Amino acid sequence: PTVNLAATVIGFWLFLNILDQLSNYFSEKYRSLRENQQFTVTYGYFKLYSTHFNGLFSRLQKIFGPCLSPWFAFGSFIGCSFMILSVLLLSSVIASELTFDQPPQIITPIVPGVNLPYHQLILYLIAILISAITH
């Protein structure tokens, strides 16, 4: 089922891109529409350029701008702190593997074919993709 889903998504974007290329090549009306509306179609996404919402974003920035600067600074601090901690944690895991100590395992590496069956690899990659998109 997951292979069919992946094939369907890839097929959809391939069809859409081919349709876009053919329409762009054969239709002057489509070309002018793309230039006037400033949109492009590529594999996996649409790009649409607009200045329609600039006034709204300008007003929101004036209202919430002073609050956002400390918020993003705090997020940067937390992100950098956890990045340093993760490097230290992974270094300790590697050091314990090299010294053959058996401390309590904090991280379990996922190795396809060893502790992750190959038939679940697509599901694992989809879960990583979803978590990357939401984060």
How would you characterize this protein structure?
The chain is mostly helical. Helix content is 70%, strand content 6%. The chain has helices spanning 2-26, 28-37, 54-98, 121-134, and strands spanning 39-42, 45-48. Strands 1-2 form a two-stranded antiparallel ribbon. A hairpin with a 2-residue loop joins strand 1 (39-42) and strand 2 (45-48). The protein starts with a helix and ends with a helix. The model has no long low-confidence stretch (mean pLDDT 83).
The H-and-E topology, N to C, reads as: HHEEHH
Number of strands: 2
Helix content: 55-70%
Straight-line N-to-C gap:
26 Å
- Give the oligomer, counting copies of the same chain as homo and different chains as hetero: single chain
Which strand-content bin applies to the residues? 5-15%
Summed over residues and divided by their number, the pLDDT gives a mean of 83
SS field, number of helical segments: 4
| Shape verdict | flat
Low-pLDDT stretches: none
Strand order of the largest sheet: 1-2
The secondary-structure class comes to: mainly alpha
- Give a short account of the largest sheet: 2 strands, antiparallel
Rg, alpha carbons: 24 Å
Keywords:
135 residues, mainly alpha, two-stranded antiparallel ribbon
Task: Please render the helix and strand layout as text.
Blueprint: H1 2-26, H2 28-37, E1 39-42, E2 45-48, H3 54-98, H4 121-134
Antiparallel strand pairs: 1-2
In short:
With 135 residues, the chain is mostly helical. It is 70% helix and 6% strand.
